[in-house]
Amino acid sequence: MTRVFSKEEQIINLLNGLGNKISPKFERCTGISSSRFEILHELDQVDEINQSMLQKIINIDSAAITRHLKQLEADSMVTRRKNPEDNRVTFVRLTDEGRKQIEGYKVEKTNFINQILQDFSDEEIHMLADFLERMQNNF
């Protein structure tokens, strides 16, 4: 038996499907996960930041931020250091290599976005952004 979905249910199903496709496709196109891209992007905006503040900005749990930062540190893209006055606080910053890499990732992200939104007019993009923002605000 085939179930008929309401338009509202179709919207949610389509958004769900897009969400499931975007992350892996983004990673294949850019060579980095969207979470790590967000971390590098935020670090590119500052000289240095407290790890827990970065975690809150990115909106991921503490284990995930630590895991991502350890890998980025192993890839020589970030450095971490303990606050000498409070050993519980860790500061994070981009390395020169990290700054170089994020520039390439930004180009790839732009290409990825252009591919997804090809054939959309500027007006349609603005409308879609407004609709999605309204949906997000309803949460």
From TrEMBL:
Alphabetical keyword list: DNA-binding, Transcription, Transcription regulation
Name of the protein described by the UniProt record: MarR family transcriptional regulator
Location of the HTH marR-type domain: 1-137
Gene3D superfamilies on file: Winged helix-like DNA-binding domain superfamily/Winged helix DNA-binding domain
InterPro entries, alphabetized: ArsR-like_HTH, HTH_MarR-typ, WH-like_DNA-bd_sf, WH_DNA-bd_sf
Source organism of the structure: Paenibacillus xylanivorans
Keyword Glycoprotein: no
Coiled-coil region list: none
SMART domains, alphabetized: HTH_MARR
CDD domains: HTH_ARSR
GO MF terms, alphabetically ordered: DNA binding; DNA-binding transcription factor activity
Pfam families the record matches: MarR
